[in-house]
Amino acid sequence: MKKIISILVALGLVLGLTVMATPVMAQTEVTNLNVTVTLPVACNVSCYNVTFMNTNAISFGQWIRVVFPAGTDLSGVAAGTITINGTACWTLNPAGPNALDIKHGIAGGIAAGSGVEVYICNVANPPAGPHTLTVMTETDPDPVTASFTINAGASVDPTSVVWCPCHNVTTNITWGAANSIVAVDGIAWPSPLLALAANKTLSINCSVIAALGGTTCDTRTLQIGFDLGCNATLTITISDNATIPLVAGWNLISLPLIPITGDPETFEAPITDVLAPVLNIVTSVWYYNGCDDEWGAWNNGPGPDIDFGLTTMGTGKAYWVCTNASGTLPLCGYRLPCPPAGPPCYCYCHCWNMVGYHSTGSMNLSTYMGNLSPAGSLFGVLTYSGGWVTVNASTNMVPGLGYWMAFTAAQACFAPPV
To answer: Using CA atoms, how far apart are residues 264 and 359, in angstroms rounded to an integer?
Structure first.
C-alpha cells in the first residue's frame, strides 16, 4: 500500500511539473504590418508611413519600436516630425543605430483593433535594394516585419567615356523617381549645351567638357544633378583627334594616334572600331608584314574572298585602304599611351615594310627617324598620294599618310619623337 501511495504521489508531482512548464502563449499584438516610402530612392530623404493592426490596446505613453534596415540615417528625425494616428508623438528615444522608440501621447491610449498609423519623416534611405522594416510594441516585443524596396539613385551608363576635342559626349542615364536634370557640372538645366532625348540619352556639348581643361590621358569628372537630390558622376578621359582624307580607290594611310580602344601593348584596335565612321565606303584593307613576307587583308561585305586574317589596325603600320567613294575618317586617340603603358617603339625587318607615321604634326623624315637603330639602315622611302612619291631626308611627312620603307638591317627600330 505504501508503495502504491508513493507511486501516486510521484506521478502527481510529474503531472504538476508538466502543467507548470507549459508556457502561456501571448496573443500577437501587431498584425497586417505595411510600410510605404515617399520617393523610395537611395540618395533621397523620405517619409515612411508604417501601418499595422493592434490586437490589444496600447496604453497612453507606451512605446512603439520601429527598426529600420542597416544603412538608414535617422539623424534628421525629430519628435515633431512623427505622428501616431495623426497626433504628434510624445517622446522619441533611440533604441539602437537604426531603431526608434516612439511614445504616443493619445489621451486614453489606442483602443484594441483600431489600427495604428506611424508617420516618420526626414529619414535618409538605406542603399538600393530590397529591405525589411520591423515593428514591435512595449506590450508585445515579438518583432513583425514588412518588406519594401529602395530604388537606385541617378546613374550614367557608361560611367566612363573618352572625349575627343570638339566632339559631344553621349551617355544613357537612369534615376529612381525623377524626370528631369537640374544641372550638369553647374550648368543649369535646360541649356543648349545639354540635350536629353526621349530615351534618356544625355548629350553633353563639347563646350561643357572643354571648360574642364586637361590634356591627353587626363581625367575629369562631370557632376550630374537630378531633381530629387541625387547625383551621378561621369568620368571623362581627355584624348586627341585627327582626320584622314580618303579618295575613291586606293589610299595608303596610317594612324597618327593610338586608337582609344587600342591594346595597351600593341596599340592596335579592331578594324571595325577604327573605320566605323567610314565603313559605308570602305571595301577592303590590306597590310604587308615585311618580317614574315606575307599579306594580311580584311574584306568589308560581299566581294572576293580575301579574308587573310587581318582584324586590327594600329600605329606604326601603314595600310592600303580601298574605298568606293571619297570621305574623311575621323580618329579619336592618344599621342602617347595612357598610364601605366609606356611610349611606343616600332621595329621592322630587312627590305620593304609598311610603316606608319605616328604624329599629328608634320616633320621631316630625318627628324622622325632620327633615333633609328642601327643608324643608316634606312635606304628607301615611298608614299602614295594619287601616285607614287619618293621621300627623302628633308621631305615633310604628312599625318594620316602611310609609307613604304626599306631597311638594310635584319631588324631596325626607332621611337617616334615626343
So the answer is: 18
Q: Is pLDDT larger for residue 20 or for residue 382?
A: 382
Phi and psi, residue 235, nearest 5° = -90, 130
Residue 302's pLDDT is 66
Q: Facing residues of 403 across strands?
A: 355, 383
**242: Cα within 13 Å, side-chain hemisphere:** 23
pLDDT digits (tens, 9 = 90+) for 51-63: 999 988 898 889 9
**What's the pLDDT score for residue 7?**
39
Q: Under a CB-based contact definition with an 8 Å cutoff, are residues 141 and 63 in contact? A: no
Whether residue 340 is preceded by a cis peptide bond, meaning omega within 30 degrees of 0, is yes
CA separation for the pair 33, 14 (Å, rounded)? 42
Instruction: Give pLDDT, residue 304.
Output: 58
Q: Is the pLDDT of residue 9 over 50?
A: no
Pairwise CA distance, residues 224 & 174, whole Å: 11
Taking alpha carbons only, the member of 361, 369, 417, 358 closest to residue 393 is 369
Domains detected in the chain: 30-150 (2.60.40.3490), 155-238 (2.60.40), 241-414 (no CATH)
Residue 203 has pLDDT above 80, yes or no: yes
Judge whether 295 and 306 are in contact, CB under 8 Å.
no
